[in-house]
Amino acid sequence: MAVQVRVPTILRSYTGGSKLVEGTGDTVAALFLDLDSRHSGLRGRLVTGDDGTELHRFVNIYVNDEDVRFLGGLDAKLNDGDEVTILPAVAGGSVDSSPGACAGQH
């Protein structure tokens, strides 16, 4: 069963620069094991815990645009032709320090 996986720029060093890779597995966990056999170290960036049974809290995984946290997490089922997107969580922002950016400043 072939699954297309979209890899973010920050993790492409594990895929030889490829933004789209193919993997197999009937669950997200099985897919990650398969991907790690071809792209060593990738799985370690996606799961946490000694046994690798938890999704890293700063990584979002989507199966056909559905967050796996609502599909059973790493046990989420996959079908042939599914598209999995790996998306690192983004937080923070920038502070506008230009004059007048905050009320009362000139």
Automatic annotation (TrEMBL):
<protein>
    <submittedName>
        <fullName>Molybdopterin synthase subunit MoaD</fullName>
        <ecNumber>2.8.1.12</ecNumber>
    </submittedName>
</protein>
<dbReference type="Pfam" id="PF02597">
    <property type="entry name" value="ThiS"/>
</dbReference>
<dbReference type="InterPro" id="IPR003749">
    <property type="entry name" value="ThiS/MoaD-like"/>
</dbReference>
<dbReference type="GO" id="GO:0030366">
    <property type="term" value="F:molybdopterin synthase activity"/>
</dbReference>
<keyword id="KW-0808">Transferase</keyword>
<dbReference type="InterPro" id="IPR052045">
    <property type="entry name" value="Sulfur_Carrier/Prot_Modifier"/>
</dbReference>
<dbReference type="InterPro" id="IPR012675">
    <property type="entry name" value="Beta-grasp_dom_sf"/>
</dbReference>
<dbReference type="InterPro" id="IPR016155">
    <property type="entry name" value="Mopterin_synth/thiamin_S_b"/>
</dbReference>
